[in-house]
Amino acid sequence: MKQEIIINLPIVADEVPKLRELVGWDGRYSDYPTLFERCNFWAGLRDEENKLIAFGYVAGMGLQHGYMEDIIVHPEYQKKGIGESLVRKLLQEAERVGLEIVTLTYDSKHTFFYTRSGFTPCSGGLWRRKD
Questions:
Q1: Which domains does the chain carry?
Q2: Is residue 10 scored above 60 in pLDDT?
Q3: Where is the N-acetyltransferase domain (predicted)?
Q4: Which DSSP category does 36 fall into?
Q5: Which pLDDT value is given to residue 128?
Q6: What span, in angstroms and rounded, lies between the C-alpha atoms of 50 and 63?
Q7: What angle (nearest 5°) sits at the alpha carbon of residue 18, between those of residues 38 and 83?
Q8: Any idea of the CA torsion for 2, 9, 110, 98, to the nearest 10 degrees?
Q9: DSSP H stretches of helix in the chain
């Protein structure tokens, strides 16, 4: 695949939710297009048929710190280096816009992937609203 990961790739609102569902996540259709308006930047990749196959974003105040989320690669394109390229592209953009810290949370089974992509594992916490 010779396509390039693009910062702020034009994306139709339902493309990301459909990609989320392909990897087994909730689509969160109501989050889009609002997410594009509120995050600092995103990155995406399309295949030769113009189908969205990778997506991720960084959100935050745009000052010193950003939070990376939703690193998604279509199941048919996983294990080909696309995810790592996506993360690195987002980190390059974070550096370009002056972010000094980017954090994310991930399942421990992905520690090697994120370490290889430039992150240092550290402890943290999670608060979740009770339904």
A1: 6-116 (3.40.630.30)
A2: yes
A3: 7-131
A4: H
A5: 78
A6: 33
A7: 75
A8: 110
A9: 15-22, 34-38, 82-96, 111-116
